[in-house]
Design a protein that fits this description.
The protein folds into two domains: about 425 residues, Growth Hormone, Chain: A; about 80 residues, Glutaredoxin (3-Layer(aba) Sandwich). It is built from 25 helices and four strands. The protein has a four-stranded mixed beta sheet, with helices on one face.
Length: about 525
Amino acid sequence: MATPASAIAAPLEVPEERRVIFASSLGTVFEWYDFYIYAILAPFFAGVFFPPGNQQAALLGAFVNYAAGFLVRPFGALVFGRVGDLIGRKYTFLVTIIVMGLSTALVGLLPTYAQVGMLAPLLLLILRLAQGLALGGEYGGAATYVAEHSPDSKRGYNTSFIQTTATLGLLLALMVVYLCRNGLGPDSFKAIGWRIPFLCSIILLIISVYIRLRLQESPVFLRMKAEGKGSKAPLTESFARWGNLKIVILALFGATAGQGVVWYTGQFYALFFLGTTLKVDWTTVYILIALSLILATPFFLVFGWLSDKIGRKWIMMLGCLLAVFTYQPIFKALTHYANPALEDFNSRTKITLTASDCHIHLFPLPTTVYSPCDKVQSQLSSRSLTYSKVEGAPGAQPVVRINEQEIVGVDEAKLKTVLAGMQYPTSAKASDVNFGMLLLLLFILVIYVTMVYGPIAAFLVELFPTRIRYTSMSLPYHIGNGWFGGMLPLTATALVAATGDIYYGLWYPIIVAAMTFVIGSLFIRETKDHKISTV
C-alpha cells in the first residue's frame, strides 16, 4: 500500500531532526578529511611522486594534481546530482563516501617515482580524480538532505552544520598529521609516516557507511515521488532550459565563486603562506590554524542562524567585500608578526634577476629541461625572496644582483654565501613569532569564511525546485569551489614564482571576490522566504 503524501511530509520530531543533522554532518566531515589531507601533505610527497631536479616544479606538480581533483568536481556533480534527483538523496551520497574513502586510502599504498617512474604521478592523478568526482556528488546530497528535513524557519541554521564540516574536516586532518609527525619524528615521517593519515581513511569510511545506512530518505523527495512529480531528465531541465540555467550562472558568479576563493584563502592559503613562504615552524603553524578554526567554527552556526532572521544574501556579500579590501594588509601583517626578519630583509634588499627563457613548469616530466633562469627562479622563490625580473639577452647566463653583489649563472653555493653575509633568515625565529597577533589575524580570515559559507547551503537549496535541486545546486557550488577556489593554491603559487612578489598571488582571490560582490549585489535575489517543498 502506498504511503500517503501527507504522512510522508509530516514534520520530524526534534530528536530525529538532530539525528539527521548529526549523521549527515559527521559523514561529510570524514569526506572533507579525505579530500584535504592531500593538500596538507603535498609538500612531503611532491618529491616522492614527481621527477627530481626542481623543488618548485615538483611542488607545482603536486598542486596540479591537487587542482585536478577540484576540476572534476563539477562532473561529479552532474553524474551524482542526476542520480540523486532520480533515485534519491540517501543512497547517492552513500556511494560517494565509499568512492572517496577507498581512493584516499589507496594513496597511502602508492609506489614512488623511484620505484615505477611516471606511473606514480599517473596513479596519483587517477585517485585524485576519483576523489573529486565523489566529492562532487557528496556536498549537494548532504546539504539537500538536511534542508529537506528542516522547517522553513530553521533551514539556514540546520544546514550551517553541514557548512562546518569542511572546516572540521581540515581540523581533523591537521590533528592526525600533527600526531603522526610528532610521534614519528621528521625522518620517519618524511620516509613513510606521511602515508598513515591516508590509510586512516579506512577507519573513517567504516564509521561513515554504518551511520549513513541507518538514515531514511528525504521526506520532501519521497512526497515528490509519491505524487509522481519527479523529473525524468534532471540534466535537461537544469541546464538546457534558460530559465533555470540563468539561475545556475548567477549562483556561480554571484555567490559560489567568491565564496570558494574566500574559503581557500582563509584556511588553506594561510596555512601554506605561514609554513612555506614565511618559514614558520610546522608545529606552530598547525596549532595556530587549528585554534583559529576552533574559535571561528561556531560562527558558521551564528551566520546560518542570522540568515534565517535577516536573509542570506547580504551576509555573503559583506564577507566578499571585507576580503577584497583587507587581504593584502592582513597577509602583510602575517609576515610582520610571523617573520619580521624576512620582512626586514626583503625591504632593505633589492634583488634583480636578469635572464631570458624563463618558464613556470606546472607539470614536470622526465623530459622537462629546466633553463638556467628556471633554476634561479626556483632558488629565489623557495627562499621567499622578493625580486624583480629584467629580460636578458637571448642565450646569456642569468644574473642575480643582490644590492651591490652579482651572481652569474646557476650558483647555489654563492647564493647561500651572499645571503648569509647579508643576514638572510632561513626560518622564522620562535622568539619573533607573535602568537597572539597571528591567531587574531587567522581568526579574522576564518570569520570571513563563516560569513560567505555559513548561509550558502540554504541559499543554494532554496534557489531550485525539488525535482532538479540536487543537480542544479551541485554544479555552481562545485565550479565555484572546485574551479575558482580549488585552483587558488596552484594559481597563487605560479603568480608568485612568475613575479617574484610573495603577495602577488592574493590578487587572484581579490579579483574573484570583487566580481562576486558586484554580480551578487546587483542580480542575486534573496531566498530566505522560499518554500522548498515546491516541486
